[in-house]
Amino acid sequence: MDPDFTPEQHEIRRTLRTLLAKRCGPDDVKTAVRTAPGYDPGLWRQLAKELGLPGLAVPEAYGGVGCGAGELALGCEETGRALLPSPLLATAALAAPLLLALGTEPQKHAYLPPLARGELTATLAVPGPVLPLALGLTGDNADGAWAGGGRAGGVQARQVDGAWRLYGEAAQVLDAHRADLLLVPAHTGGFTRSRVQLFLVRGDAPGLRRTRHTTLDETRSQGALQLREVEGELLDGDLHRPLAAVGRTTATTLAAEAVGSAAHVLERTVAYVKEREQFGRAIGSFQAVKHRLADRYVQVQAARSAAYYAAWDPDAGGLALAQALEALRSAAAEAIQLHGGIGFTWEHEAHLYFKRAASDELLFGPVSKLRDRAAERAGLFRARTAGTRAQAGIL
Questions:
Q1: Which class for 325: exposed (0-12), middle (13-18), buried (19 or more C-beta within 10 A)?
Q2: d(CA 85, CA 29)
Q3: Residue 153 pLDDT more than 70?
Q4: Average per-residue pLDDT in the chain?
Q5: For the chain, what are the domain ranges?
Q6: CATH 1.20.140.10 for domain 249-383
């Protein structure tokens, strides 16, 4: 697929790539992830002020740029190239669309403008192991099983003196230790009439305890939440459909981000094999190396086409994400192998991309389940079953 980008879209890409080349090199990434917030607040403010990055997909009526998920995906392709550690994914892809879909007008006007300006960050407080199911990427999220069950499962909410109080725990939550706003799914109605609803919780609310996890991919901050009678604002409405819609656009955003990472690490590897000599010649001149890199190039380009198509049709987001994660994993593995000894060291950047590939598949996959869900939604399993039954009848 060869999309025809608008001049504005080209400008978003060019400006973002130029800025990140100056402010987000490998050493900058390693320094930022080891700070208390886990990212560079100064760079985040600059991205918000100059590009409106967190508000790209937020309507102008609520202080955003008024673009769409396609522009956000295009921006994330560039942040993926640099492995930018930031609250962008959790804030702009997960939290803001849910607040837009389920919030009241006062809530939207109160919280969306500061989110769009980068003054506040937010996240969806769903534990990592069930996040792809909650988003409808690996199964049907309608029954709310991903939110825990029973009297002590997940987070519980009850009304006390007219206010909602939340009690429970959630682990492996993206940006849990630093987000200013938390969108928390919780069970209401007691054990017999349990219903999962979404609540807005301030990051500084009394009774909220947050702990940062040590993670495989330091550029994807995760943490644990403990809520002890924490006050929350109800975001009323049926939750599973908005969650599934957010899942499709998030998958598109992640696919574009993974494509950016894969393309960059492949470019660095190609540049390296042109310079590294063995037996008196550049290793990139060996046919076996050429074939390996050519295969990775085709894989990355196919994943890019799938990601761009998903930006136009979000229903293809899950399949695009599966293809992009596979491309990133393969490109990062080749980078480590073809860089030789230096590629296996912590000093080199190759391991950062490999960790991103592994971490994203753990958080939003695995690839096999993403593909299974895409096939199920396309009706391929039903067609196969009908064909098998017909064949059995003939036999």
A1: buried
A2: 7
A3: no
A4: 91
A5: 7-120, 124-241, 249-383
A6: yes
CB 244 within 8 Å of CB 64: no
**What superfamily would CATH give domain 7-120?**
Acyl-CoA dehydrogenase/oxidase, N-terminal domain (1.10.540.10)
pTM over 0.90: yes
Name the residue among 260, 264, 257, 178 with its Cα closest to residue 221: 178
pLDDT over threshold 50, residue 227: yes
Q: What is the pLDDT of residues 110-147, one digit of tens each?
A: 999 999 999 999 999 999 999 999 999 999 998 888 98
Backbone φ and ψ for 83, nearest 5 degrees, come out as: 55, 45
Residue type, 116: A
End-to-end CA distance of the chain: 43
Q: How confident is the model at residue 395 (pLDDT cuts 50, 70, 90)?
A: very low
Q: Is the pLDDT of residue 51 over 70?
A: yes
**Residue burial 77-113, b: 16+ Cβ < 10 Å; e: rest:** bbbbbbbbbbbbbbbbbbbbbbbbbbbeeebbeebbb
CATH superfamily of 124-241: Butyryl-CoA Dehydrogenase, subunit A, domain 2 (2.40.110.10)
Spatial distance between the Cα atoms of 203 and 189, rounded to a whole number of angstroms: 25
Region 209-222 average pLDDT:
95
Give me 264's structure tokens: 């960059």
